[in-house]
Amino acid sequence: MRIIVDAMGGDNAPQEIIKGCIQALETLNVHIILVGQQEVIHKELKKYTYPKEKVEIRHASQVITNDDIPTKVIKEKKDASMVVGFKMLKEKEGDAFVSAGNTGALLSGALLKVGRIKGVHRPALTPIFPTEKGCAILVDAGANTHCRPENFLQFGIMGSTYMEKVEAIKNPSVGLVNVGTEAGKGTDLTKEAFSLLKNAHINFFGNIESREIPVGNIHVIVCDGFVGNVILKLMEGMGLTFYSEIKKIFTKNPITYLSALLVKKGLKSFKKKMDYREHGGAPLLGIDGAVIKAHGSSNALSIYYTILQAQKFVDTGVIEEIRQNMTQEAKANEY
Amino acid sequence: MRIIVDAMGGDNAPQEIIKGCIQALETLNVHIILVGQQEVIHKELKKYTYPKEKVEIRHASQVITNDDIPTKVIKEKKDASMVVGFKMLKEKEGDAFVSAGNTGALLSGALLKVGRIKGVHRPALTPIFPTEKGCAILVDAGANTHCRPENFLQFGIMGSTYMEKVEAIKNPSVGLVNVGTEAGKGTDLTKEAFSLLKNAHINFFGNIESREIPVGNIHVIVCDGFVGNVILKLMEGMGLTFYSEIKKIFTKNPITYLSALLVKKGLKSFKKKMDYREHGGAPLLGIDGAVIKAHGSSNALSIYYTILQAQKFVDTGVIEEIRQNMTQEAKANEY
After folding, report:
1. How many other CB atoms are found less than 10 A from the CB of residue B329?
2. Tens digit of pLDDT per residue, chain A (335 long)?
């Protein structure tokens, strides 16, 4: 399998991106195509020993930054690593594309350069995050701040497909984020979305309140991109606050240090369990190609896991399955 | 000061409600008027010794449950404890009204029976919650799932007034929840709200991402009631998940128990710091009377703190200040 990696995207590019690729080469059966400024990539690669035949460099002279305006930059910086990466994916020079760059540009670029799966109205940005019982997918986390009920239906189907295929969860449970659990709760939008999801070929649990999200009984969290963005970032923020408070407790004096030593194993496994990175990045579900957004602040480990995720994504045929489910759902709605 | 308390509202009514009132009488200089079924209240009160002259009972034969339809029940159950409580507040038989009952009914009842402060378009449900640096107010947490930009402006002003008066925070910082921090981010609604808030007589920080909320640099969190409800419940859920995971770590074996003993003080003060109850309930800001919603699952301690909050609310003249700020803002927008 050939994974195209944007060597220039993200806060820690190119160093951590390339380091993560090298780690991936050590354990995964993948070829990596690094896209970006040749000299910069060469210089980084020199730091490592790795199977040369498994790495390719594709030169791209320009770089998209976080200050660039998404829709504009995709058209203007034609030789940006991200744009070149998309073209390569479209032309099947690689099986998946991973980038930690400008999220808006990645969304615009994927739509413009790769396109949607037939039948999908709105692709979504769908991060996977840890829960008490495993993990869940958030559809949508920010690609669509305004949604129509049909979008929610497709979010449910796409998220369900991902969790079933990539995370191997049988019959994943789908929940619609709302202000209450009763069927009649919420806005006109959520009410209509509810009835569409209820009749879809998915395991629809119903409305959920956000307090259920971290518990983990629901595997697919459906909401519009505004609400999803708030959920994702609040979970991150709460996590950071908790860690910082716990750290304060344990680093107060020699006795608390001793206490930390006694629960070291438990703390470590808790931290590991709650580590976002191990679940990889956020796929752009609905795009007719495997595009995975790695976190902007990705380090080597995040990139490693995102490449692993890209590999599973391609191996399990998520896109083909979404295509089929869309056709099936469209037919069901015709009659 | 006379606090009217709905003795029949909430999951633990009347026992915990009345127990909380007794606790309040021990330390606060308040009179309590308990509204509800006389016999039930009498029976509970008999359990305690307390200054009899400071407690009054107002009989109300009916009870509003969580299954009742808010707008309907306020009109139909005319002798419900909540409805009677509102009437008493309106007729100045008491200075504030505290209830842990049906939130929707409380919102409807407050609007119908007490009314809005002149100039306020939409009252809001505004819980106070702990942050790393103290506490913050969320405006709105569910009263208005649909909002117009002017509502956000008023939310900012009302929240700011509350934090300045009741929590004694000078020049509280107001943030608009959005999907990014730049001024141009978000939906048409947030963009318009941004420009209104920017020109208001408040300390407007600008757009904030939800990861900033638990940190505590922003004291007034402005958003629509749908997003606010998601934020509030997700914070609750994350807190519960985190505690349950920490508990698992410490209760694993004798050694981890020992570890817990060594950081007992730190854990306790962390728990206290993050305890929602100490900040009281959620005022209904914009209502022309002090109405405070206690959490549905309130125990005696929550009720105690909600009564304390009601006392501060009245003492500091929040409503009069909001009235003045509304007039000032309306004038400013005329020219």
Report:
1. 21
2. 999 999 999 999 999 999 999 999 999 999 999 999 999 999 999 999 999 999 999 999 999 999 999 989 999 999 999 999 999 999 999 999 999 999 999 999 999 999 999 999 999 999 999 999 999 999 999 999 999 999 999 999 999 999 999 999 999 999 999 999 988 889 999 999 999 999 999 999 999 999 999 999 999 999 999 999 999 999 999 998 988 888 899 998 999 999 999 999 998 888 888 888 888 999 999 999 999 999 999 999 999 999 999 999 999 999 999 999 999 888 877 65
* Domain co-membership, A75 together with A136: no
CB-nearest partner of B226 from A187, A236, A259: A187
ipTM score assigned to the predicted complex: 0.94
User: Is the CB of A274 inside 8 Å of chain B's CB atoms?
Assistant: yes
B interface test, pick of A66, A188, A233 with most B CB neighbours within 10 Å: A233
CB atoms A145 and B212 under 8 Å = no
CATH code, domain carrying A188:
3.40.718.10
Transcribe A207-229 into DSSP letters.
EE-GGGTTT-S-SEEE--HHHHH
Return d(Cα B178, Cα B190) in angstroms, integer: 7
Domain, as residue range, for B49:
1-120+286-335
Using a CB-CB cut-off of 8 Å, the residues of chain B touching A259 are 258-263
| Domain co-membership, B18 together with B32 | yes
Task: Please check whether residues A103 and A149 belong to one and the same domain.
Answer: no
Point out the residue among B237, B255, B261 whose CB comes nearest to the CB of A215. B237
Residues B256 and B150 in one domain: yes
Q: Are residues A126 and A248 in the same domain?
A: yes
| CA quadruple A56, A62, A68, A73: dihedral sign | negative
Same-domain pairing of A161 and A67: no
How many structural domains compose chain B? 2
Distance CA B147, CA B124 (A): 11
The structure's pTM equals: 0.95
Residue type, B262: L
Q: What angle do CA A152, A178, B102 make, to 5 degrees?
A: 160
Query: Do A194 and A125 fall within a single domain?
Result: yes
